[in-house]
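Service request form, structural biology core

Requester: graduate student, group of Dr. S.
Request type: structure prediction, single chain
Budget code: on file
Notes: please return the result as structure tokens.

Sequence provided:
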Amino acid sequence: MTRADPGKLPTIARRMLAWYDRHRRDLPWRRTRDPYAVWLSEIMLQQTQVATAIPYYERFLRRFPIVRALAKAPIGEVLKLWAGLGYYSRARNLHRAAKIVANDLNGEFPRTVDGLRALPGIGRYTAGAIASIAFGARAAVVDGNVTRVLARLFDLSSDVRERHTQDRIWNLATSLLPARRCGDFNQALMELGATVCTPAATAQCGECPVARWCMARRAGTVADRPVKGGRAKVKHETHVVAAIRRGERYLFVRRPQEGLWGGLWELPSAVASGRSIESALRSLTREAMAARSRAQRFCDFEHVLSHRRIRMIGYEFAAPAGAGRERGGACRWVALRDARALGLSRAMQRVVESLEEHGRQRPRPCRPKLKPP
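Core staff response, request fulfilled:
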């Protein structure tokens, strides 16, 4: 592994900051140093593209302008605003952390990395980002973009998923930090990885402010960096959805707080793990025990998550007497036009769209023509 030349590090930092001042994107969270807003943006940007996060960030700040407002909100309302953003444990941790800051810390965020890491949902990267951007702390950050930049800048030939390589990258990120403007420098590294030092097929080495010092460019290994080992296996699942209709309304149920899509609403569903679709339908709820021959399939599509591919198969049938009684407050009968107000996952939004289209194609009952008197 190549050693960093200490004499070059201050020059690299200056070049990065000068480039960032000229080329940084105008993103809403870059217009503030408010630790609450910075924290909110960093949580949302975990596993989420910038363009996707922006409208969620703006809606959250309109509804919860300060941390105490978020802390006082019911978790259901928080999950509803988060719906569609994915990785719902982030929203639950966001709410828990807000309560700690509001109730135990007098509304003030910790100013140190260690203090921030004590809050739910904040790891090493997020703590470094908040501490450096909001408080000017000399704290490094390493995410996917920073890993790619540093793996090329220092031509790292070992697997970046291995612990010792990650430790090396964190040390390099720390060694590059300038004496001042650490928050801007960290954002410059992330910005460079997001817009210039991108994956090999789109990398723009000619636009890079530190190309002169890039060891991978000199060695001709840009396309080979970073080195990554085998990816985690993608899990394949089949989810069977029961659209139980009573008049113009459908039964929606709330998912358990923990696990996939925790706390969101859905049409009753079950995972068909090695069993028949009919068996999965029968296992949903007592009211979903209608014979499959009486149900109409209305959707069959694949929904892709980061490490999971889910086949969603939906069946519609009329509700038998007493449907939904045993669920109490965990279920609601809702017209499809009002369903999105509940807070649905993106996959369930697609299911509802398919059900709406199915309803438009359903034959309407014929009404007898009235004879004129």
